[in-house]
């Protein structure tokens, strides 16, 4: 779910890619314009290829489809939980031209790469209710203004916090980093075993997300609208310094530097964290009353804090696309339409707390009453910033991870890390 669950490994990409969500809706940026749409023919069994379903609801959706379409059954192929490995296996399958994979569950930052390499098929806009979906999510499925993937879930970062502990101390959720540190200083002394704050700080795509959020939340940016790196700014320095100071002071516990989404989720559910930066899927997990969560009924969510006020999330989510090599493309199209329907998105929200892409669901009062975080989540998505829109995204992401991890470990001073990263990104974005 890096987003969910956002990771991009070190595979070599075609140099001509316009790799980045912002570029997907544009005809500029150096990528080659895609060919026209292929015929979506073929009816019969298909596969749905996805990362490990930690929600537990995906098979329910597939079973419902299969019950109504016995001659067009969908088989779920689960890839590893780690999204780096997911993407690697999808790329390898595409490079062999294998028809084994049918519908691909793509991270939002993969759409352009897969479209540019003609690994996925252009989709007919008119077949989908795009005007009913959050505009930000629709753009993640486009490449050169053409639709290649349909948003199934979105994602915006949220600040999960122990409401019971803040209430007991007479505190409100923080809106700034300084307030968060002050809250920790007041709450933690009387709550041994609880640490201040964690996010996704292992050296993988989640660290790119968290680093980008810190920089954006300090008024900076990683890459400007012109595609050029902007790390030689005060905002970038303050963003990275926030992460470095957190580790140095102990506000970010040492073991949090090994956290991906699931490690952090388990720590929060075990009552080990006062504050946790996480995606919406954690809400249902942490609310479970089956004994798996010690914080059920004791937490709430708020916007991510920033330097001087609420921060800015990175935009996450997953899109469904049709493999260019699958034989039964018409069935794949119909299955995506089914999965993207308002009914299925409502059911998925109710079962998993994952962020829907149907805009109207965020204003449904019955859902808001059941999932009070929806109002905060909608704002998080609407105000989210895209990850760097650059040609060689995977190299850029890896460079960011290396620099941020080295600075947070104390191996490289902040200014040196940013100066080095600026130079590397300048080379990668030429």
User: In the CATH hierarchy, what is the superfamily of the largest domain?
Assistant: Periplasmic binding protein-like II
Number of domains: 2
Derived from helix and strand composition plus strand pairing, the structural class reads alpha/beta
Spatial shape: globular
Radius of gyration: 21 Å
The rounded distance between the terminal residues' Cα atoms is 31 Å
CATH architecture of the largest domain: 3-Layer(aba) Sandwich
Number of strand elements: 11
Would you tell me which CATH topology of the largest domain applies? D-Maltodextrin-Binding Protein, domain 2
The CATH C-level class name of the largest domain: Alpha Beta
SS strand fraction: 5-15%
Strand/helix succession? HEHEHEHHEEEEHHEHHHEHEEHHHHHH
Explain this structure.
- It contains 17 helices and eleven strands.
- With 430 residues, the chain is of the alpha/beta class.
- The protein has a five-stranded mixed sheet, with helices on both faces.
- Helix 8 crosses helix 9, helix 8 packs across helix 16 and helix 16 packs antiparallel against helix 17.
Write the layout of secondary structure elements.
Elements: H1 21-24, E1 46-50, H2 58-68, E2 74-78, H3 83-95, E3 103-107, H4 111-116, H5 135-139, E4 142-143, E5 146-147, E6 150-155, E7 158-162, H6 163-168, H7 177-187, E8 195-198, H8 205-217, H9 234-249, H10 261-269, E9 273-278, H11 282-286, E10 299-302, E11 316-322, H12 329-339, H13 342-352, H14 365-370, H15 374-382, H16 393-408, H17 414-428
Helix pairs in contact: 8-9, 8-16, 16-17
